Structure prediction request, 66 residues.
Amino acid sequence: MNDKPLETRNFGGTNQKVTRIGLGGEGVLRTHGQIREAREVIQEAIDQGISYFDSARVYADSEVYY
Prediction:
């Protein structure tokens, strides 16, 4: 793991800072019945410093994992 913090940007027109690298709601987060795996992926992203999480209804309700 790199100890250097991830680069951030303002989110849209707000002053909220989020990482340039994010976690999208596709993949394991889109697969029903994969709660343990989805939580592990999300936790690893948080542990790595990710603060931008993309979720949408089109990703088969992936937002329920967040």
About this structure: Residues 16-65 form one domain. The radius of gyration is 13 Å.
